[in-house]
Fold this sequence. Notes:
The complex is a heterodimer of chains A (63) and B (528).
Chain A: H1 3-29, H2 39-43
Chain B: H1 18-29, H2 32-36, H3 38-44, H4 51-76, H5 80-87, H6 92-124, H7 132-140, H8 157-176, H9 178-205, H10 210-218, H11 228-241, H12 248-254, H13 262-295, H14 307-321, H15 325-359, H16 363-382, H17 387-417, H18 421-430, H19 438-466, H20 473-496, H21 516-526
Amino acid sequence: MTTIAIVMMVLFLLIVWGGLVVSIWYLRGHPTPYSDIDDDEDENLATPHTPVTPPPGTPRYDS
Amino acid sequence: MSTSTSPAPVGREQWRSQSGFILAAVGSAIGLGNIWRFPGVAYTNGGGAFLIPYVVALLTAGVVYLLFDWAMGHRYHGSAPAVFRRINKWFEPVGWLQVGISFAIVTYYAVIVAWAVSFIVFSVDTAWGEDPATFFVGEYLQAVPSSEAHVTSDVVGNVFWPLLGIWVFVAIVMALGVSSGLERMSKVFLPLLAVLFLALVIRALTLPGAAEGLNSFFTPDWGALADPQVWISAYAQIFFSLSVMFGIMLTYASYLPKRANLTPTGFVVAFSNSSFELLAGIGVFATLGFMAVGQGVGVSELEGITGPVLSFITFPQIISQMPGGPLFGVLFFASLTLAGITSLVSLLQVISAAVQEKFGLDRKLASVVIAILAGAISTFLFASTNGLNMLDVVDNYVNNIGVVSSAVLTVVLVVYVSKLLPVLEAHLNHHSTAKLGAWWRVFAAYVTPIVLFAMLVLTAVDLVTNGYLDYPAWYANLFGWGTLGVILVLAFVMTALPWRTPVDLFSPRALGGRSASERAATRKEDGR
Lengths: 63, 528
């Protein structure tokens, strides 16, 4: 391989695979536990609340 | 724009984990095009110099519109037609246009995956013999020449049986649902694809002539950077490869829970797709180098280095010549199959989600209905003796005109008519630990749409004035423009039908409460 081809291959790999490594590293450093409840709502879970149920006959989006 | 909260639609499915969502999104992005399109596009558009337009396109179009799609899907929390309707009820046809495009693509995409399945078996004893071209076109597909293309429904048995298997498999995955079907399948298929493809690339790199192939692939032609067509090719590659702006990523993001980290996840998905693409380029050109050295010619003199010809004619030719060829063939076609199936189910999910919500259908019933309908169309149109020609024409028009039109329409309606770009940016920033800046708005609203519009106009003018390849004009018009016309009419017909679910009883996910970055900071302080 010529020097310029090797340089371009290394650059390509560094930018694309480096971008992947950095973005994974960033995401692992900022974990976001998946939930439909925000932390603010977490704090309210101790408060008694009335469960919300859909009216009878409400169609479901997905069963 | 309302910022009040509303509960998630009753019973709507969700991804079970962040890794599951990432794998499914990456699986959707990594498809046949990564393996057979990218290497040829990069090689013919400047080789190593293509790096510059490619990375620019990745950051200014790929990441930008991936996040655009995710913001719409996550904020409006529904299928493509529901999301567009929730933005403005007059926009619903655009959602159905995206569903129609996905439907058209699945009908032929499944057929290509079926070819790959057949070729896994053929690889074991190199069943294509001395002349893979005659074997593929003549014996396997029993195809008629493109200049003699006509309308027929003579189903080819060789293609039918693997195709049936594919449809049964994807119907089962769809019926199992987002978390138990799509997510679980992605968690198995994506790591398997990575291992198989890595093994294939390592083998390719050890072949005599591999360095010659890589030399051709990476040697830069700096003059190419002055050619606008090279930049358009880079944008097109990124745009089609990442599956943005025609419903897939929007639908996938709609299954995310409220608490998600959108922007950093988008970068992971976009760079994963490009990393695989680059790996494919290395593997394909190392293999082509082996072929060139074996024939005593330069890589530039080889023909058939992209598309189905690369996969089903050139590669079989190479497999026959190399030591351990059958194993290499199994690895290659198994990789194609896995990449194809994960993309196929993502396209089907666009259709399934829309049908379920519009007609209030049970998920399993919707999966069966869609699989039977799409399976029947794909069998009679694309598994016929005329299937190869029809596939070529429909693919060209649906991708280059349909998908790009959908993107341009989406930008015009969402950014310019509804002026929602600041809202989508605020949504992404609220649900991300990394903030987007003005650059995202500039590229989403101004720079990239101009490139996409240029792509659309140039392609449309070329097709209208020159037709498509050597196909008879009536044939290209009927199956090219005709398919797009049918999709457009059906988009309006579907819009006119009544919704069986309360699509309008909805308000967007709120931006109130603490943002993702504020929550992350609290967790850090708490040592969580």
